[in-house]
Amino acid sequence: MNFKRYLPILQWAPHYSRNQVTSDLIAAVIVTVMLIPQSLAYALLAGLPAHVGLYASILPLAIYAVFGTSRTLSVGPVAVASLMTAAALAPLAEAGTPEYIAGAVLLAVMSGLMLTVMGVMRLGFLANFLSHPVISGFITASGIVIAASQLKHLFGIQSSGHNLIDIVGSLLSGLADTNLPTLLVGGGALLFLVWSRRYLKPLLSKLGLAPRAADIFTKTAPILAVVVTTLVAWALRLDEQGVRLVGAVPSGLPSFTMPSLEPSVWSQLAVSALLISVVGFVESVSVGQTLAAKRRQRIDPDQELIGLGTANLGSGFSGGMPVTGGFSRSVVNFDAGAETPAAGAYTAVGIALATLFLTPAIAWLPQATLAATIIVAVATLIDLPALARTFRYSRTDFGAMLATIVLTLVHSVEAGIIAGVALSIGLFLYRTSRPHSAVVGLVPGTEHFRNVLRHDVELCPKVTFLRVDESLYFANARFLEETVMDLVSREPELTDLVLVCPAVNLIDASALESLEAINERLHDAGARLHLSEVKGPVMDRLKGTEFLEHLGGGVYLSTYEAWQALTNRPAIA
Amino acid sequence: MNFKRYLPILQWAPHYSRNQVTSDLIAAVIVTVMLIPQSLAYALLAGLPAHVGLYASILPLAIYAVFGTSRTLSVGPVAVASLMTAAALAPLAEAGTPEYIAGAVLLAVMSGLMLTVMGVMRLGFLANFLSHPVISGFITASGIVIAASQLKHLFGIQSSGHNLIDIVGSLLSGLADTNLPTLLVGGGALLFLVWSRRYLKPLLSKLGLAPRAADIFTKTAPILAVVVTTLVAWALRLDEQGVRLVGAVPSGLPSFTMPSLEPSVWSQLAVSALLISVVGFVESVSVGQTLAAKRRQRIDPDQELIGLGTANLGSGFSGGMPVTGGFSRSVVNFDAGAETPAAGAYTAVGIALATLFLTPAIAWLPQATLAATIIVAVATLIDLPALARTFRYSRTDFGAMLATIVLTLVHSVEAGIIAGVALSIGLFLYRTSRPHSAVVGLVPGTEHFRNVLRHDVELCPKVTFLRVDESLYFANARFLEETVMDLVSREPELTDLVLVCPAVNLIDASALESLEAINERLHDAGARLHLSEVKGPVMDRLKGTEFLEHLGGGVYLSTYEAWQALTNRPAIA
Question: Are A190 and A150 in contact (CB under 8 A)?
Answer without folding.
Answer: no
